[in-house]
Write a structure and sequence with these properties.
single chain, 83 residues, alpha+beta, three-stranded antiparallel sheet, 3 strands, 37% helix
């Protein structure tokens, strides 16, 4: 996956799109494993295959944009409430 889409990378295959998809998930405390299970579930509506690395990069983008907060235990995070 690439960070941004271009003429060779579809939007659904970009880290930016994956970060947006993650951002739309319900705001509840979760671990990376829980998020990974939600995204890779067969019923997931994400159109392309996602690796764990891609999810971590998308979380990095959300953290940099202050859309994700690490909780005190250091294992869980909380997505900001969508407005």
């Amino acid at each position: 996956m690439k960070l941004l889409p271009n003429e060779h990378v579809l939007f659904c295959e970009s880290i930016t799109a994956l970060a947006g998809y993650i951002r739309k998930l319900p705001a509840k405390p979760r671990t990376l494993d829980e998020l990974w299970a939600d995204i890779t579930r067969d019923a997931s509506s994400w159109p392309s295959r996602v690796s764990l690395d891609d999810v971590v990069y998308a979380l990095d983008v959300l953290f940099a944009l202050r859309q994700l907060t690490m909780l005190d235990d250091g294992r869980r995070f909380l997505l900001r409430q969508a407005q």
